[in-house]
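Page 47, continued from p. 46.
Same chain as before, 441 aa.
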Amino acid sequence: MKVLLRGISHETAPVELREQFAVEPGRLADATRALLRVPGVREAIILSTCNRTEFVVCYGPTVPDLSRFLADFFGVVAVQSTENMYEFYGINAVQHLFRVACSLDSLVLGEPQIMGQVKNSYAVARSIGAVRSNLEQLMQSAFSTAKRVRSDTKIGNAPVSVASVAIDLIKKVFGSLRGRRILLVGAGKMSGLAASHLMEQGAESIAVANRTFENALSLAGRLGGRAVRFEDVHSTAAEADIVITSTGTPDYIFRREDGRELMRLRRNRPLFFVDIAVPRDVDPEINRAEGVFVYDIDSLQSISSAHRADRSREAEKAERIVAQEAIRYHRRAMALDVAPAIRRLRAAMETIEQTELRRRRSKLRVLTPDQQQATQLLLRGMTNKILHPVIQNLKKAAQHGDSETMETICAIFDLAPLLQAQAEEDESSLFAMDQPDVLTA
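Result:
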């Protein structure tokens, strides 16, 4: 089975384009089912975070065309954004996935949240039957690689996150957070992280607004702040100095016209928005209002670059680990792929032996039983000598990831159809087995 990864990230597209491809948590299962219906796709996972949306599929025998899926699910923007998307195949796809899981491809190098997001995508895909034997092995290898990177390098020491970088940005603007009034819009994990950093920096007045008021109450209680009903979010923003937003809503919470009204209520005292949501919560046009300043997820790039420079040496170690593990996984996968071919090749040659012996049975009757057995052994020995270099070269090609040699040998002996059929049989039998419920990472 072959691997394809297609995606868009902060490395290739600005936030206004990335947000068009964001998959809300409640739609992740439906999106994965839709991807699974693409002809040729056998297994699938979708990873959607604030900085990337990636589609990982195992396919065969032909390469699937994901264009129709992208157009149907995300609209015309998907067709127009091909140049902003990247594609990886085979070992390159594996290595990219490992880098993502290890937070080597994150906006904030080494941030720990990405592993939780990868595991969530895996759990959703697995729950709907989109993960079978091939993706199961791939994802478990990604988890174990990330675990090795965390244990063998210091890239995760003193962990930073998008939320902590946002606080660094606020400190650059205000100098000190003491006495500043903060409004958190959204009570999820990212808001909680931001709040923790704010408290460490001396923020004294924190309000929390969330569509589910009970969640706002819970977070506000932990912070010693106050909960705000979502319908009061605009009036509360007028009382704040800094508004940090991180929700899952597809629409703007603060629009351009809200900026002018906020400035009127604040008597033109400056108001700072830090929008770390994708899709964005704050209309960038609100920047046009005098005294309103908006920073989105892409505004954090320059600050995160400083963290990246500090961690570059550990990142080099992590990159070497990822490369080693990707090669190791690829060789294991190739060896598994070649095993059915070897079995079928042996079975095919044995069938030829038996067929030829049956055809010449009448002529062999003149031989004694010992002579007949010697003839069979002679035929078997010749077959084995013919097969030996073929099998050795197949195994060597698998060990070195030489797919071209493998495909050539399979084509010469007409093993490709048999190989695909056997792979599907093996996959079905593996999928029928009880799978563990605990993630191994």
